[in-house]
Design goal:
The chain has about 200 residues and is an alpha+beta fold. It is built from 5 helices and 9 strands; from the N terminus they run E-E-E-H-H-H-H-E-E-H-E-E-E-E. The strands form 2 sheets. A 6-stranded mixed β-sheet has the order 5-4-9-8-7-6. It has a 3-stranded antiparallel β-sheet with strand order 1-2-3, with no helix packed on it. A hairpin with a 2-residue loop joins strand 4 and strand 5. Keywords: Bacterial flagellum biogenesis, Cytoplasm, Repressor, RNA-binding, Translation regulation.
Length: about 200
């Protein structure tokens, strides 16, 4: 709150179009004049509160109705601003390429997204190196047919990403939500852990 001392005849400017003029000072009261555009509502607080309270009592308003009326009259503090929406996560080409290729049958194209010494952990089993990963793609990863829909993407830092996919297919249970945790190095997937 800004506190000012003014003498009769002196003015206070609010913005570019509101002028408050001190007209007179008598005892414990001060008379002021306010010059403002027509669209600006000027009300004495005690009168506004009395009218609001009388209206609420007459209407038998419920507390939530009272809050609506008070909010409309500007008597409630402003609601906090909504949190900013995070920008969408841009996945590295190797990760987005793997996710697009994993549902296909071209295992060589899928394998190209992995580093030579990459590791994959799927269903508790570990596959290290490109040959083992190709075997995983040919057997475990191709055992069932499925569709995959990305539900959530997270970027933990420039090398670590988690993608949660909803899978539907002919595997036991028919649906699953899996988290694909990627570590990317040198533009290729260095490790991938898949878990519920």
């Amino acid at each position: 709150m800004l506190v000012l001392t003014r003498k009769p005849g002196e003015r206070i400017l609010i913005g570019d179009n509101i002028v408050v003029t001190i007209l007179d000072s008598r005892g414990d009261g001060v008379r002021i004049g306010i010059d403002a555009p027509r669209g600006i509502t000027i009300q004495r607080e005690e009168v506004l509160r009395a009218v609001t309270d009388a209206n609420l009592a007459a209407a038998g308003a419920q507390p939530e109705g009272a809050d609506l009326i008070k909010a409309a009259l500007g008597l409630l503090p402003a609601a906090p601003a909504a949190p900013a929406t995070a920008p969408p996560v841009v996945l590295p080409a190797a990760v987005s390429g793997f996710l697009a290729d994993q549902v296909g049958t071209d295992h060589a194209a899928t394998l190209a997204h992995f580093a030579d010494d990459a590791t994959v952990v799927d269903d508790g089993k570990s596959f290290a190196g490109r040959d083992a990963i190709l075997g995983w793609l040919s057997r475990e990863a191709s055992e069932f047919t499925f569709t995959s829909t990305t539900v959530k993407t997270e970027k933990h830092d420039d090398a670590r990403y988690t993608v949660t996919n909803h899978l539907e297919g002919n595997f036991p249970g028919g649906t699953a939500d899996l988290r694909f945790q990627f570590f990317v190095s040198g533009g290729r997937i260095a490790s991938l852990t898949i878990q519920p």
